[in-house]
Amino acid sequence: MRRFTRTRTRSSRAPAAALLLAASLSATLAVQAQQPNSSPPVVLDRVVAVVNKRAILASDLDEEVRLSILDSTRVGQSDLTRQRALDQLISRTLIQQQIRQEDLQAIEPSQEEVDARIGELRKQLPACVRQNCASDAGWKAFLAAHGLTPGRVDSYFRNRLEILSFIELRFRQGIQISEPQIDDYYRNILLPQYTSGESFPPLDQVAPRIQEILLEQQVNALFDAWLRNLREQGDVEVLDPEFESAEAQGARGGAGP
């Protein structure tokens, strides 16, 4: 499944955002008041964005970057940037709010499903295999090296499985892939990838995989359109000037994907 795409955010400042900023400032002033003769206070955390009154903190971005080590789709890619981490957190928050709004309890994964996914990761993720995560000692060392805990990893995969189930329920059902579509993909997309004289698989052998590819393409298109609309209609406020500037550039088409 494709990663979440960046869309426009609203730049207005709502009272809720002001209250959150005030709370962050109060926390800083409290530290300063407790240490009147010490060096300038250090901000322990700050609100970076607000999504329908739900705050996203700078510490959330840091954790999202750390958790990216568990994402098998990022193998071989560059490190996750904080801007991309914020984009992912905004999208995920909107989706989870929609799930709660629709009260879709049936898509909540069981503990067995979560444990199975974590077990697969411990045995298959290259970074994990190199550190022998299949053993309890290796897994513990791997988590400690990346600043993670078993509970946070459990929550990470629980959220991912819930969102995947939501996408399956909302967008995949009802999509039909016809035989002409499969045949067209086979003749015009798959076969041209083979050089002259090279053997290629017969249609009946690859038809199931072609059907899955076409189905995933349609699901991605529907999901991306739905998510763009959700972000446009939601109250998404980026409060950190650094990220707000990047969002504005993206809205004008000046930012990359």
Order of SSEs, N→C?
A: HEEHHHHHHHHEH
Level of helix content?
55-70%
- The end-to-end distance, rounded to whole angstroms, is 16 Å
Number of domains: 3
Please tally the helical runs, counting DSSP H or I stretches of 4 or more residues.
10
- Shape from CA axes? globular
User: What's the gyration radius in Å?
Assistant: 22 Å
Residue runs with pLDDT of under 50 for 5 or more positions = 1-33, 246-257
Largest sheet: 3 strands, antiparallel
Strand tally is: 3
Oligomeric category: single chain
Average residue pLDDT: 80
Bin the strand percentage: under 5%
Outline the fold blueprint.
Blueprint: H1 15-34, E1 47-51, E2 54-57, H2 58-67, H3 82-102, H4 111-124, H5 126-129, H6 136-145, H7 150-172, H8 179-190, H9 203-233, E3 236-238, H10 241-251
Antiparallel strand pairs: 1-2, 1-3
Helix pairs in contact: 2-3, 4-7, 7-9, 8-9
Question: What would you note in describing this structure?
Answer:
The protein has 257 residues and is mainly alpha-helical. The protein folds into three domains: 1-102 and 235-257, no CATH class; 104-173, no CATH class; 175-233. The chain has ten helices and three strands; from the N terminus they run αββααααααααβα. Strands 2-1-3 form a three-stranded antiparallel sheet, sandwiched between helices. A hairpin with a 2-residue loop joins strand 1 (47-51) and strand 2 (54-57). Mean pLDDT is 80; it is low at 1-33 and 246-257.
In brief:
This protein has 257 residues and is mostly helical. It is 61% helix and 5% strand. The protein has a 3-stranded antiparallel sheet with strand order 2-1-3, sandwiched between helices.
